[in-house]
Amino acid sequence: MVGICSYAGYIPRYRLDRMTVFSAMGWFNPATIMNASGEKAVANFDEDSITMAAAAGLKCTKDLDAEQFGAVYFASTTAPFKERQNATIVAGALGLNEEIRAADFAGSLKSGTTALLAAIEYAAMTEGEMALACAADCRLGRAGSVQEMVFGDGGAAFAVGSAGVIAEYKGSYSISCDFVDHLRGANSKYDRQWEERWIRDVGYDRLIPQVIGGICKKYGLQLAELAKVIYPCYYPGARKKINHKLGLRPDQVQDDLMMDAGDTGSAHPLMMLAAALETASPGEKLLVVSYGNGCDALLFEVTAVIEKFPNRNRVSDAVKNNIELASYLKYLIWREMLPVEIGMRGEEEKLTRWSVAWRSRKAILSLQGTRCRQCGTQQYPPQRICVNPDCGAIDHMEPAALAAGGGKIVSFTSDLLAATTNPPAIYGTVDFSGGGRNMMDFTDCVLEDLKVGGPVSFTFRIKYIDPRRDTTFYFWKAVPVKEVTEGG
Amino acid sequence: MAEGIRDKVVVLGMGCSVFGERWEDDSSDLILEAYLECIEDAGIEKKDIQAAWVGNHIDEVNIGKGGCYLASTLHLPYIPVTRVENFCASGTEAFRGACYAVASGAYDIAMAAGVEKLKDVGYGGLPDSPIFGQLYRLLSPNATAPGMFALLATAYSTHYGMPMEKIKEALTHISWKSHQNGAMNPRAHLRKEISESQIADSPFIAYPLGLFDCCGVSDGAAMAIVTTPEIGAKLKPNQELVRVKSLQISVSSGEELIYNKWNGCSLPTTRLAAELAYREAGVTSPREEIGMLEVHDCFSVTEMVTMEDLQISLPGKAPEDIMSGFYDLDGQVPCQPDGGLKCFGHPIGASGLRMIYEIYSQLLRRWPEERLVKEPKLGLTHNLGGVPFQNVCSISILGLD
After folding, report:
1. Nearest to A83 by CA among A463, A470, A428
2. Using the beta-carbon criterion (under 8 Å), do A379 and B140 form an inter-chain contact?
3. Most CB within 10 Å of its CB: which of A4, A156, A167, A231?
4. Contact between A387 and B260 using a beta-carbon 8 Å cutoff
5. ipTM of this model?
6. Which residues in chain B touch residue A435, judged by CB atoms under 8 angstroms apart?
């Protein structure tokens, strides 16, 4: 048996009320009032598809053994790099081995499900090894566009394998056709879209029933026996029409998260599948369909293992962890849609010395430190001479993975002088759980969220962007953890 | 057995340029300004200088690397010139080089210069640069100097359980006092008295530090010529000579940065350098014996914790001493009588020598009555280069014969 062993969705913390967008841009395109309900999830200034895929991946692999993974696939239409493998960066952030297969899936909104299929095939072929499929998107719409309203940022991740399967893979059916409802050339920031009526009536309304019909025929399925039919379609009218055409009962329809997050692109069908798994019961059949230059349809059957699966609410928790981004201008600046004066300090040299980064890649990508085998002192960044003055052992170190353990705040400040597109820069000293200390940026917080001794978790984020060389560099930041009271 | 530097070197002459935004002047003009005063004060000629050291931190702006800039500015006749860099301790490092050269017997007369031209950076504050190397740049936060020193305040507040409001009061008084002193000093960069409420209400730069908790970023140069006590006595037979009583440097071991034991608000470098300096100078009770201080008040909070690390105030008691006026110009141990980094200004490579210049001038009673510290026997200078968790601390103690 091969199938899903773990899942997670990641929705960035900031939400832009669509009426905030409309208040700013409605004068320009009054028709967007049709799309102006609910919220869109917005990546923080230091997030992109890689960091969101890593966040989903970390949540997904939290209880799994990193050694078991043989492949990592990353899908996105907004990958930060055309060349430099995005999946390998994600794998590094997850602290996985370097002896793995990694691949980027791109070019279509169905790339997320295609990556999942590839992962399933990898697991099926290798018997025993696990594979991870992550997808994330951070798509932009021009100011005042429908896309700006409907797109949301987010990521999802699925671990597949043959042990501890919570949803068995039962088969798939795919269509690939050059239906160009929208496209983004290699050098473009924004989509170019054909007429919406055509997309709705010829795109969604024909292709989705066609692929669902195809998989049903292939496996002799009756639609009525499916617990959920999961597919993206951000036109509510078209969605209603398709549901009606397919004869779906209301309980078979999976919520599309449009009110809470928006259309998260290549991650969207996977995000919806993860949400469906939160409430799925053993024996239920789930059909997930993607849409983009054709469709993939994948069929899963939920197993009894799901009842023992820990923390199942891996999308709804992310939906609940939100804070309003009250300023539309802040959104434009974070996404580099509006030139902003960050001052000459921000122009200082940001050349990334790749040979330096290579030597310390475990420290940078995986937040790996060292632990002294002689005295047990954990330290970061990796040391050769033990920092404990009473020890000082030389070259008696073993690796210490620090990312998952979190830490606590030792000191902090909020700096208005530092050059950033999200002032003030908040940073300070953090002690790692189990020992070791580092100066770190804090993110997803305001000054008032910080207190000395307060707990933090670590998140993989953009450290800096070097616009001159079109390079993004990643590192870990600390996020203050809100103490949640049980049942609160 | 090493004997240390005590009483082996005297200061023959000193000079210090006006500090400030010297828009019309290059580093060479600043150097010349300090040199003219210094060489006249020393009463020697250029050809008598046998070796020179020049302290400078940000070589990218104006002076470049190596010793050539100083040598060719003054057209020093092919003598050894060494550029030294050790963050904000660079000026004191230059002085240490010259003193050690004389004390070793290698030279009779040596020069120490410090210079920094910061107002060609193009923006306020210090320029952003990978001061701890390339890897650290990739692993460290998007930080500035005020932010990293501000961390002292949150750590202090936690360590002593002291409310931030109480700390802010002391920090405000520190800046107020330095402005009072700086206002009287014709060479200081910032020469305006300001009220405590103006300081307390100034906009935040990095919590909890406001604009007036930060020192001036200035252009300037300072210089010293040193020799042995014997030669000094011969050259200046009828004058009191200022002697070097101790010179100490302590550099972070890396523990503050990555080991969990550090409390974040007391600097082991300053503590150790002070301890060694007192021992070298024969000081047993610093609070009673040290007559004046010029310390590294890059930010008000640095001055506050330094008062404790120098063992002048007891741990956790600096705010109390500060508020009682203990460190004011008319207090028991005046601190920053020339205005300090806060108001005299902070051209990094020059600052250590500027502090020594102030002690030297006070000891020789060269200032007008209103600026004079009452009869100091010993004066102490302190630089803290880098950041609280990764720094170079230098201390000098000077006194009369």
Report:
1. A470
2. no
3. A156
4. no
5. 0.93
6. 260
